[in-house]
Amino acid sequence: MRGRYVSRTLASVLLRRQPQPSGAGAAAAANSPFPGAALRHFSDRQKGQEQPKAFDPALLEFLVCPLSKKPLRYEASTNELINEELGIAYPIIDGIPNMIPQAARMIDRKAQDDEPKQT
Amino acid sequence: MAASIGAVTSRALHSRRHHRKLLSVGRGLFSGARRLVAEGETHFGFQNVSETEKGEKVYHVFESVAKKYDIMNDSMSLGIHRLWKDILLHQMNPYPGTQLLDVAGGTGDIAFRFINYVRSQWEHQIKQKLKSHQNLSWEEIFKSYQEEELKLPGGSQVVVCDINKEMLKVGKQKAQHLGYSEGLSWVVGNAEELPFNDNKFDVYTIAFGIRNVTHIDQALQEAYRVLKPGGRFLCLEFSQVNNPLISRLYDLYSFQVIPVLGEIIAGDWKSYQYLVESIRRFPAQDEFKAMVEDAGFLKVEYRNLTSGIVAIHSGFKL
After folding, report:
1. Secondary element (H or E) of residue A81
2. How far apart are alpha carbons B153 and B123 in whole angstroms?
3. Chain B interface includes A34 (CB < 8 A)
4. Under which pathway is this protein filed (chain B) (predicted)?
5. What is the pTM of this model?
């Protein structure tokens, strides 16, 4: 049963991973202490520093917006967690997501007017 | 150098006079003092402040002490805080596969202990199986080769949540130094408004953090919400000493020695003054037990450590 749990979480992590620049990820993997961790860090973004400062997508399983308790979307380009419904984005600094409502910023509503709204 | 020592000792003398009065008044009106606070107001140590102010002030306290937090803990408690945290882990007794949420976990002490505990439990389990000549399933053998690199045994996970990103930064660096990488996540979040879904975690711990929360009842309700049914709430916090002799020694030590240590080691008198005052303002064991029960937890118990200087409150979501 434990084996199934491990494979299920691994599968969900792999499925959620978004396409990332693989060159940066490979370099991060080479620096990490455990060779097995190369699988994990492969598609994480590297910020040009020694330790991988990327956000671990596995956290998305746990994280929700503290205000509405709805799931969030990881936006790789701005490195933020976005709540579509409320139109707010939580920043991720040094790989640590900041889930304090005061730290979140409002997303520019104009850009979203063209997209079909999901409720 | 001499001038600064002079300044520190003169401040110490001044505070001794100030606090001898406060101590007698404080002890007398202890429970009453808390109710004298007006609506929308709360306490920050022995001061009365508005609730928004308390949050900010607490944030600044921990922002300034973050880098020296661990050193100060060791010097103030003479290293005993390590024992307290070890006892907390023993009481938790996590098995491999446990999902832990460590709130106000800042520098990660509880999280690292959890990881060590779960790893040693796993090894112990394997050894037991070998001893009793049970064959390990090939799943387990496969995992024992992989587990160290990829995940914690059994899929255990610990999420460290703290309102203060400086403390988390220190914690993350510590993790990298000590070599903890997998199964460990860091999140900046407010204990009163946790960014987690309902019924997610097996254990919720808050060690030396809940007295800094502005609305303790909200934090307890959030704790109840994010725990799975059957989940355990554990709170390690400073509490009231039951022995009068030890109480006097403890008060003396708290108000005379700790702020001075804070000034010498961390260069921050006020923060450690706040620390010892906030300990005095926190409800006693039974009162806090009632608060935990109000949040919905069952089978709430507490256990005094070091004559009540510290207490572990435990409750279950059933």
Report:
1. strand A80-83
2. 9
3. yes
4. Cofactor biosynthesis; ubiquinone biosynthesis
5. 0.73
